[in-house]
Task: inverse folding
């Protein structure tokens, strides 16, 4: 999950620089550029990668129970799933915190 987030963030940074956001010339990530990811597509890709990591951990765990996978492979897959879950919970907490902050703002 961490490599997926790192690669997604590097694409966002590249998009920001290419679209002029670093100098304030653009109104959003991937505002009108072709092939430039927007926030929603980056988050969709990160979510898809997280789901794939969790599914892989389940498959490898079942293979380990059946004796088709080594203990090292099972532990590695489970640790990847744990990292993914920790990252997802941290992101959820940040989103909830941001929403609560916005809801406390005076209109």
Result:
């Amino acid at each position: 999950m961490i490599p997926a987030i790192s690669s997604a963030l590097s694409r966002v940074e590249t998009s920001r620089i290419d679209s002029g956001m670093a100098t304030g010339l653009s109104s959003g990530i991937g505002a009108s550029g072709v092939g430039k990811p927007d926030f929603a597509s980056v988050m969709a890709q990160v979510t898809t990668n997280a789901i794939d990591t969790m599914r892989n951990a389940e498959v490898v765990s079942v293979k380990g129970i059946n004796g088709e996978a080594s203990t090292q492979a099972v532990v590695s897959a489970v640790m990847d799933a744990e990292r993914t879950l920790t990252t997802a919970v941290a992101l959820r907490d940040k989103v909830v915190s941001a929403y609560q902050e916005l809801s406390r703002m005076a209109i």
Summary: Helices lie at 2-18, 39-65, 71-103. The first helix runs from residue 2 to 18. The chain has one domain: 2-103.
